[in-house]
Amino acid sequence: MANVKPAEGKLGILVVGCGAVSTTFMTGVLMARKGLAKPVGSMTQYDKIRVGKGENKKYLAYGDIVPLTNLNDIVFGTWDVYPQNAYQAAMYAEVLKEKDINPVREELEQIVPMKAAFDKNYAKRLDGDNVKDAATRWEMVEQLREDIRSFKEKNGCARIVVIWAASTEIYVPVYEPVHGTLAALEKAMKEDDREHIAPSMCYAYAALAEGAPFIMGAPNTTVDIPAMWEMAEKTKMPIAGKDFKTGQTLVKSGFAPIIGTRCLGMSGWFSTNILGNRDGLVLDEPENFRTKEVSKLSTLETILKADKQPDLYGDIYHKVRINYYPPRNDNKEGWDNIDIFGWMGYPMQIKINFLCRDSILAAPLLLDLCLLSDLAARAGRYGIQRFLSFYLKSPMHDYTKGEEAVNDLFKQYTMLKNAIREMGGYEADEEID
């Protein structure tokens, strides 16, 4: 191993939000370790990477290359604005059937949400009362830090990872005077600047301050600001984000490279979604949708580049819509209409209709992101974890230095494999498997 600390002791996974995604994730892990379900979709549990070349070539599971935390060593905790325990929340979400929840009912009932750090202005459609009473954003941070410390001690955890699986907050543009430096961010928290400091930033700051990696699973600005990068450097902790890449954007990041590689042109890509869970309800609010729209729109432009191929991609009309439709609940439908053109400019169309289950696609991402962020921390990797871009809609990058995010799914997969290889003491390479 390449100087990676072993995965000794228990790993506490603290999930912000105890809704459809997080309860599907927790139930699945608990069922999998009882041998009653399979963690399908989780690359840490199923994928194999080639290491070595020629005669030394072999294909190994991630856990055989690097020391990953065993599923039996995971302990779950959560924060939520609603007080229902994870069993009640899983039943209410109606993603999983009762027969797939009941075998781990007792364990789920033990997972009772801690009071959430919440500000209704950031998610107007949520009405829970299981919330912290904090006079300032700084006090919010202090209470969250205490939650992390007491959870770690009570459950005998060696390490903690914090992952956001709560609703999308309203859009918070990067504001240099507050978000530019760690000192400015801390000052704004102490002065209770509620306009520029979202509750999610309090979770991220608290996690990093307590030596826990933080993963942003929504498109919130949260850790995607220089002040948080500075905090991650200071605490030597990994951060990752943002927004789980589950349905439509997964398709987009895999399909757009086909068009680009084949040098076909594109005149437009229209994406629409219908979904009915709590996520859909929150995104029905225009200010919250704006946050999601920015995240979803960024994918295409970094794969099909207008500046490099003006003839082909100089005038793409890209539109994204999300529609709240309660009858669908968690069963999201992503519909894409793609207008392309070929030889001599002749038009063609592609239509994709993905009838997906949002939480079923997201749950394995949470597992992989938590296990790999914990691994990164033990390997001494800190700051933005670009190798986790594969799992994220709007991967973090240093936009202050003109860096562009990598959104091409296949390039992202190469980055992921190479990071695992390097942490396992093998050479990074791009040889075709």
UniProtKB/TrEMBL annotation:
It comes from Xylanibacter rarus. Belongs to the myo-inositol 1-phosphate synthase family. Pfam families: Inos-1-P_synth, NAD_binding_5. The lineage of its organism: Bacteria, Pseudomonadati, Bacteroidota, Bacteroidia, Bacteroidales. GO terms for biological process: inositol biosynthetic process; phospholipid biosynthetic process. It comes from the Bacteria. SUPFAM superfamilies: Glyceraldehyde-3-phosphate dehydrogenase-like, C-terminal domain, NAD(P)-binding Rossmann-fold domains. One of its GO terms (molecular function) is inositol-3-phosphate synthase activity. Keywords: Membrane, Transmembrane, Transmembrane helix. InterPro entries: Myo-inos-1-P_Synthase, Myo-inos-1-P_Synthase_GAPDH, NAD(P)-bd_dom_sf. The keyword Ribonucleoprotein does not apply. The chain crosses the membrane at residues 12-32. Residues 247-359 form the Myo-inositol-1-phosphate synthase GAPDH-like domain. This is Inositol-3-phosphate synthase.
